[in-house]
Each structure stands twice: as structure tokens, then as C-alpha cells.
Amino acid sequence: MVPNYLRFLVFITLLGSSCSTKLVTKMTIKPEEKIRFMTLDPGHFHAGLVHKSMYLEVDSTLQVFAPEGAELKDHLARIQGYNSRTESPTAWKIKGYTGADYLEQMLVQKPGNVMVVAGKNDQKIDYILHAIRQGIHVYADKPLVIDVKGYQKLKEAYRMAEQKQLLLLDMMTERFEITTLLQRELSMIPEVFGDLENGTAADPAITKESVHHFYKSVSGVPLVRPDWFFDVEKEGTGIVDVTTHLVDLIQWEAFPNEVLDTTDIQVYDSKIWPTALRLNQFTQATQKAIFTEPLMKYLNGDKLEVFSNGEFQYTLKGKHAKVRVVWDFQAPEGTGDTHFSLMRGTKANLIIRQGQEEGYRPVLYVKLLQGDSKELTQAVRNRLQAMYPGIDLEALPSGEYKILVPDKYHNGHEAHFAQVTAKYLDYLRSGNLPAWEIPNTLTKYFTTTKALELARK
Questions:
Q1: 303: CB partners within 8 A, 6+ apart
Q2: How far apart, in whole angstroms, are the C-alpha atoms of residue 244 and residue 251?
Q3: Structural domains for the chain
Q4: Is the predicted pLDDT of residue 237 greater than 90, yes or no?
């Protein structure tokens, strides 16, 4: 069954319609050949979410190469859960290899043509390099790298991928969140937004903040985190992990369809700080009774200090930007991960809030700074409604305007994996990748790793 793949084609068309493209890979996967996924060492639940849906062009046999252990069992159980669910069950068939030499066996057997990888972030770039050297396309969870050393390897990976005509892409799921899509679209309408302000360190032009939680449910099941998730040498600090999404969105929204370069970046303020976990919280999140040996170096008294929180400020082509990520242990009942985003224009501010007033669902607001609402109303009811039927707006007593979004567009974080995967498959088959995607990916990771370098100083 493939309903999700077809449902998301509209998003592919809309997102790709205005982008300049270039041929980055020839038809190395023949038109009549199925795309075949090989999942390597699936240590993060995002590897499973890729397979929450079926895709027309992907062979239903999944090849999994991984060491034996709890992480593999969790991954297989997640896919089995998708196969056995009542509504729109998937039909994945699992094959593969388990053993200490799982990487070597994948490279020797090579039963697929795309490697899917989501796991320990410190070794991910080495997995990517091995795959590309063997002529394998790569579809990777973020972050691709977590330090400056890894960034240098990433540059080499992209150089080789271009030489071998291979596609390497990370899973930028947040580009598919509906309020973010609408925020970006409104920022591209000068009559409504004007121009993006330059901003200052005290009042940035763009601010993006998110709050995440160590203990939560995924696909209706409590998530069991591996113990290494709390080791920032493997997972990465708050500055280089979730902030990858925030930096990506800043680039994507502030300079849509433009090629960016590392010379456009100046990081000037950066810091990291820990979330302290008690043993009972660690046990609840990992199902492990004690703090494991690799984590002992992070103990402060009887608490585990996880440097998962980060904040930094930088300029992108002269525009001041700020990103901030905070990790709490568990969200209060009825809440979840949250996102805040502010884009400041000369004519309007575009604000995404996801607090109690919004029912912890992201909502886009528009605050007009000059003029009346005529231009905004026309933009919403003509341009936005043409793209997303049912979109509307409501004037609030505060003076802001709330963008009304039908429930059908709020499909949630997990559904975004099918959307971004469909996009990857489209690029892989057609060979047409936006000209800005790869240089902007390198700029993104230059920004995050440079911010970490500054924070450590």
C-alpha cells in the first residue's frame, strides 16, 4: 500500500517549482530498476520512521546491516509494528546481516543502492565516506557531522559524491512543517513582509528556538533511548544536533533558492549548558538500571550532566540570526516538543508559536508594522489558498493576525519523514537537485561546527 507517497507529491511539486536546478547525478539507477534501501547500524528511531510508509519506487525488501543488540531489536520491532498496524499497514520484508563486521559485509554484499543511516553521530560521516567510496547513494539522518574534524570529512564526501555521480542528502524534515512553509511563503511577498531586517545582536532579524524531551512516545510507544544518546561525544552537544534543523530553516527562509557560502557566515556568540538527569530519569529513558561506564565522566554528584542545550548567534550575509535548543526530561501532560520562530520584516513580523494558547500545536501569526491588512488578506486568500486550499486568516484583539490552517495539513513530525524521503527519491531518480542544496548543506554544517568551536573557547 502506498497512499502516503502519492499524498506527498503535491508538496514535492510546490517546493520544487521555483527552484533552479542542476544535474548532479546521472541515471545511475536505471528507470526500470527498483531503488533498494540498505539500513546501516540503525541506532536512532529516525531510521525506523523512514519506513513508516511505503514508496512506489522502493523495493519492499529492506536490507539491514547492524551489530546485534537492543538498538537493532528496537528498529526491527518498530518496522514490524508498521507492518502489523490496522490502518495502512506497510509490507516491508527484512533481510540482512548481524555481526561485528556489519559494515564490511554491507560493502561486500552490496544488496542495495541507497544506504540509510541514523545512529551514532560521531561515526556517521565515516559510514558515509565508506558508502560513497563503494558507489552507494546515501540518505542520512541529521546531523551529518558534529565537529570541525567531521566537517572536513564532509567536504571530502561531497567531493567524491560529485565525482562518482552519487546523491548524499540529509533528512531535513522540518522544511515540511506547514506553518514553516507558510512563514517562508509570506516572507517572499514584499507587499506583506517587505524586506528582511538586518537586525542586531540584541534584536536579531531571525530567531528560532525549540524545546525537546529525552522521554517521550514515538508512534504511540514510549521511546527507549540508547545510553550513548546521553554521551555528547557520540550524539553531539546541543549546538550541533537539533540546531542543524534551525540553521537549515534560517538559510531556507532568509535566502530562498540562493546559493550560500561559508564566507557569508560570521559566528560571534555561542554557549552550551547541561541538563541534569537523576538516575531514575535515566532509567526511565533507557531502561538501564545504572549509569553506564562511558557516561561516568559526565557525573556531577549523583546526577548525569548532558550538555544537550545550546545557543548561538551569527550573521548570514549581514542578517543577524539566533538559534537556541533546550532539552528537558519530559514534557508536561498534554504537551510535547515545541518550536518558536520569528522573522522580522520591514512591513511585518512573522511569528510561529507553539505554547499553551495554541494547544501546543504550531500556529503562525502575522504582526503588521505599517499599512492595513488588505495586502495580507489578498496574499492569504489568493496566493496561499491556491497552494493550500482552506488556508485563511483571523484578526485577533491583540492586533495580530492568525493564519488558520485546516487539520489535514498538520500531519506531524513523524509524517515528515515520508515527505522528505519522497523528495529524496525524486532527486535520485531525476538527477535534478536544487543548485543551492549541496553548497548550503556545507554552509549549514560550517555554521554549527564553528559555533561549537567558539563555545568551547
A1: 276, 277, 278
A2: 11
A3: 3-172 (3.40.50.720), 175-413 (3.30.360.10)
A4: yes
